[in-house]
Amino acid sequence: MSEQEAEGHQVAPAQEVGDFLRLRREQIAQRWADAALFRTVFTVSRDEAVEAGRAVVEALAAVAAAERLEDPEADGFNVVRDQLARTAASRSRAGSTNSQISTEVDALRPPVLELLVADLSARGEEHVRECTTALTVLMGTLRMVVLETLLTAGQELIERQRLQLLEVATPVIKLWEGIVAVPLIGTLDSARSQVVMETLLDSIVEQHARFAILDITGVPTVDSLVAQHLMKTVAAARLMGAECIVSGIRPAIAQTIVHLGIDLGTVMTRASLADALAYALRQQGADIVAHVPDGAGPR
Amino acid sequence: MTGLSPSPYGGQVPVLRIGDVLLVTLQGDLHDGTAEQLQQDVSEAAADSRVNGVVIDLSGVEIVDSFLGRVLADIAAKTRLLAAETVVAGMRPAVAITLVELGLTLPGLRTALSTEEALRLLGGASISPRYGRTRQESP
């Protein structure tokens, strides 16, 4: 629209809002410090909340002055990302959901709007309307930037935890001289089963293990893909000269395997880890017997 | 037939005879010509009546392709016809993974962790097992 030119205002609403924000940043910061978002994060010192609010207002003013109200990539929002995203992230850690935080960011709008309307009341109604619209758009973009930052932080966390899981979840345990075991816990995907295979084969070399036990007690479901991974691992271990035993197949999983028509015929299986260990020991010529004290055994 | 890099064997892989077992140690790349020569050498040596086992030591092999997989399977098949058994010893993890990914699980082949173990496997009862006495023998 070009009404503002028709009315003789040379300043665009975005510029107007930018000027207003810069002029009133102290008042706005003071009001924001009482808003839920800042109050709950900066519990110790109100000055800090005011400081944070002032930084955000200044950033918004810069964005408005550059007339990039709807552009979340605007330079000014980098400050917002640093400042407001950190507060939002700490709200998120405290257990707030994304929509709660979004509502809290939205709650920053009314106090600014009040001030703006009060400031511009002397001007034409049309002008006030345009400026409030510009401010609303700006605050909407702010809300989007905050949410986007939150989501990115969430994704980073997930990625980090995925890597940690990969490292942590595949310990190879030496059960006996020449016998190693891998207790598998959780769902097996390609990446994990690759890690499992590599660590198991390495430990076979390292421990000089003739027997390797894959315990799948902690694997919730077995589908054809998981079965394939297991068979690959077993085949690789066999090529290296170790015998691989799969243990911990629960009745439900046994049923699933049969229903899917997967042939585990080439794989040695045992019901429990104990059975597998007993088998491996017997194959090595060792046997477990009860200790009989001094020949006076109980009859 | 001629590869870019010189074969570490000078065209021939040594086939050593220890008692009634043949020992073949592979190292590095195996060229087509060398592999053919090896298969022939092993067959000839295995035809000797006293040989009852062939041990192929792969601990020096780090890279493998489907060709080597086939060579191993071929040697095993040939020696089995000559009433001897083939044991592949000391395969590295990376090699094992590659063979499995290639779909070469070599089902007819016996395997062992090391050459020592392979010799024990072929020697059967003549060499005493590492975990000596069973329960029956203990006092």
Quote the CATH topology of chain B: Transcription Regulator spoIIAA
Q: Any idea of the CATH class of the largest domain in chain A?
A: Mainly Alpha
CA distance, first residue to last residue of chain A: 104 Å
- The percentage of residues in β strands of chain B lies in 15-25%
The run of helices and strands of chain A is HHHHHHHHHEEHEHEHEH
Number of strands of chain A: 5
Helix content of chain A: 55-70%
Mean pLDDT of chain B: 78
Shape of chain A: elongated
Describe this structure in words.
The complex is a heterodimer of chains A (299) and B (139). Chain A is α/β, with parallel strands linked by helices and 299 residues long. Chain A folds into two domains: 3-164, Globin-like, CATH 1.10.490.10; 173-283, STAS domain (Transcription Regulator spoIIAA, 2-Layer Sandwich), CATH 3.30.750.24. Helix content of chain A is 63%, strand content 9%. Chain A is built from 13 helices and five strands. Chain A has helices spanning 3-6, 13-23, 25-32, 36-41, 46-65, 76-93, 98-106, 109-120, 125-168, 190-207, 224-239, 251-260, 273-283; strands at 173-176, 179-185, 211-218, 243-247, 268-270. In chain A, β4, α12 (251-260) and β5 (268-270) form a beta-alpha-beta unit. In chain A, α2 packs antiparallel against α5 and α2 packs across α9. The longest helix of chain A is centred in the middle third of the chain and has 44 residues, at 125-168. Chain A is elongated. The model of chain A is unreliable at 1-9 (pLDDT under 50). With 139 residues, chain B is α/β, with parallel strands linked by helices. Chain B has one domain (15-124): STAS domain (Transcription Regulator spoIIAA, 2-Layer Sandwich), CATH 3.30.750.24. Chain B contains four helices and five strands; from the N terminus they run ββαβαβαβα. A five-stranded mixed sheet of chain B has the order 1-2-3-4-5. In chain B, α1 (32-47) runs parallel beside α2. Chain B starts with 14 loop residues before the first strand and ends in a 16-residue tail after the last helix. Mean pLDDT of chain B is 78; it is low at 1-5 and 125-139. Chains A and B meet through α10 and α11 of A and α3 of B.
